[in-house]
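Marked as duplicate of an earlier ticket. Keeping the data here for the record.
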Amino acid sequence: MKHIDIKEIVENKKKFIGKSVTVCGWVRTSRDSKTVAFVELNDGTMLKHMQIVFDKEKIDNCAAALPLCTSLKITGKVVKAANNPENVEINADTVEVLGECPPEYPIQKKPHSLEFLRTIPHLRMRTNTFSAMFRIRNVLTEAIHKYYLDRNYVYAHTPIITGSDCEGAGEGFKVTTIGYSNKFKTEEEYHANDFFSKSAGLTVSGQLEGEMMAMAFGKIYTFGPTFRAENSNTSRHAAEFWMNEPEVAFCDIDGLIEIAEEFIKFITKFVLDKCKDELAFFERFYEKGLIEKLTGIVEKDFARVDYTEAIEILKKCSKAKEFQYPVEWGCDLQTEHERYLTEEHFAKPCFVVNYPKAIKSFYMKQNDDGKTVAATDLLVPGVGEIIGGSEREANYEKLKNEIVARGMNLSDYEQYLDLRKYGSVPHAGFGLGLERMLMYITGIGNIRDTAIFPRARNELR
């Protein structure tokens, strides 16, 4: 069906004024009067709508074209908008109804809560909120790829089905072709008869395989879906989310922090430059001062604090007694602690470095003090942690001993250990959750509003 994108007309309006065009789209709003009717048409190519003007003496099927979400094919002349000569509109010559929409269409003109829209995920992207969200998601994805490819990284597609648990927390989804069965006497017998002849699950991270790629290509990144079966129902957790994970050879923790800061600044500026209308929408309806906040990310240096110092800051702060979770050395920082550090104490993004070994993953480089590891989290105002990373343990014996000490199956990590036997080098990497970054960039408060079909505890549509 030959037609012109509305975005093409809006961005090149001088070229189209006075010309006849054909556009297609869905009715987003409509107004009717005695002699003239107006439709705001959107074809999905941009956030803004195109106003269509119907002269009722010319258009005899005008009434059929006015219901919300009716799909139309319009042919008409592009003219300067009557109420704003800087914009354009189309005076319709012919109207074809491609798809009718009945009055019970659930998204009407009145405002709808995000909670209600989550009950109709197959329709909610037709609203301005989700039109803006998924455009920004698209541009943010482009920015991530561009950052790495412009800097000689190799894009690695790591497996979605895996036989190992990268985080060692046992919070993965099992993959099986057998399902429930009382046919087998032991778990080993069950797995032996399954598709892979061993326990398999959905990946919680592409890091382990990414490290293997980095030992050949130097700098790689993964970007794809990851899965966590955490029994969590918070606004920041999802069971399925997209994770970006660079892995860099010949890199220590200080180099990793430099990369992470440059990366966040780059992708934030990319979105600021390319999504002005969408960001203006989120600033108007969801977070006042959003654009100023994002501009500050690009222009200001991030803070850096050692975990031990961060604990002292939290213990001495005026809100210490109000924290739901007590603060002591060795505790894992909770969202309330992270947000105090980044929103109130530093008032900007902050890297927390050198966490206690006991609360971090087995693969992190052990510091000389024997108590901490070279790990870092990037905390941002309003969200908390959006990046978690570390220098990896490059010493074979230290890594092997840590796997054994944590009761993990050594045979599952033989290939990973081989990297430490054959030309081991200092290397480091981090993980950025795409959906959490979207929360930060848009001001949206719930991760379920950053994905088309969010996956969470008791939620599968």
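See parent ticket for discussion. The CA atoms of residues 126 and 286 lie 18 Å apart.
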